[in-house]
Amino acid sequence: MMTEKYQYRLYGRTRGRSNKKINLEDYKKKLNKFKIVKLDKKKDYILDIGTGYGETSIYLSKKYPERTVIACEKYIDGNIKLLKKIDRYNLKNIKIFDGNVNKILEELNIEQYFNAVWIFFPDPWPKKKHFKRRLLTSAFLKKLHTFLKSKGRICIATDSVSYTRSILNIIFENKNLFEWLNQTQAYLSVKDVYDIETKFYKKAINSGRNPVLFILEKI
After folding, report:
1. Coil, strand or helix at 59
2. Secondary structure of 66-125 in HEC code, one letter for each residue
3. Domains located in the chain, CATH noted
4. Is the CB of residue 1 less than 8 Å from the CB of residue 107?
5. Which among 76, 78, 149, 183 is least surrounded, fewest beta carbons within 10 Å?
6. Is 77 annotated in the active site?
7. Long-range contacts of range 21-26, CB-CB < 8 Å, 24 or more positions apart?
8. Is 151 helix (H, G, I), strand (E, B) or coil?
């Protein structure tokens, strides 16, 4: 799996603004130890898209030790922090993919692999001219549906008002594929369900924005 057949453009930075130098060769060597080799449909996987600094992947790894967490993140600084945490907590159930998640999905056989997909604080690309760069679209949700196991869930968190409106439209367009489990609890906070505070969650709270959580279940 993970050949070079498919090429996808990655928007946004792969490095932080810090001038701290990193040894890319050493980074790649450490990353290769956790690279995805092949997925087995008989096993249980959680696809964690856009892991940032790795908080969600660490949380999921500890919460679901019987499942394998696939941390999908291009941000080098974040992956370095994740690798350090994996080593610190001696976690054995995390794999890392440092590229576009569509590459993973395109190369999979049409099977049901994932028990859950987490998408916490995807880049909102707030300018209207950049909306096309957003990860979450109706087509992407349909693609995820294909690879979710029966009753598999998608958990989405965002603090962007415009992205929230877009997600609501996407959910409506796919109401025949997913049940919106927390629909009667509109604007349910992340902390009401999951005891996790990522860097982006804290940033939103400190800025006076209450992150919105969507929990969808495959029909």
Report:
1. helix
2. CCEEEEECCCHHHHHHHHHHHHHHCCCCEEEECCCHHHHHHHCCCCCCEEEEEEECCCCC
3. 39-218 (3.40.50.150)
4. yes
5. 183
6. no
7. 22/76, 22/77, 22/80, 24/76
8. strand
Half-sphere exposure of 194 (CA within 13 A, CB side): 24
Question: Is the CA virtual torsion 175, 179, 182, 183 positive or negative?
Answer: positive
Whole-angstrom CA distances from 106 to 1, 12, 52, 96, 117 are 10, 22, 23, 17, 16
Please name which of 80, 64, 72 lies closest in space to residue 20, comparing C-alpha atoms.
80
Residue type, 74: K
Rounded Cα gap, residues 170 and 158, in angstroms: 14
Q: Which helix (H) or strand (E) holds 154?
A: strand 148-158
The pair of structure tokens assigned to 25 is 């060769």
- Spell out the residues 6+ positions from residue 36 whose beta carbon is closer than 8 angstroms to its own: 1, 2, 70, 95, 96, 97, 104
Task: Please indicate whether residue 184 or residue 43 has the higher confidence score (pLDDT).
Answer: 43
Per-residue pLDDT of 132-163, as tens digits, reads 999 999 999 999 999 999 999 999 999 999 99
- CB atoms inside a 10 Å sphere around CB 32: 9
**Looking at 26, 48, 87, 123, which residue is catalytic?**
123
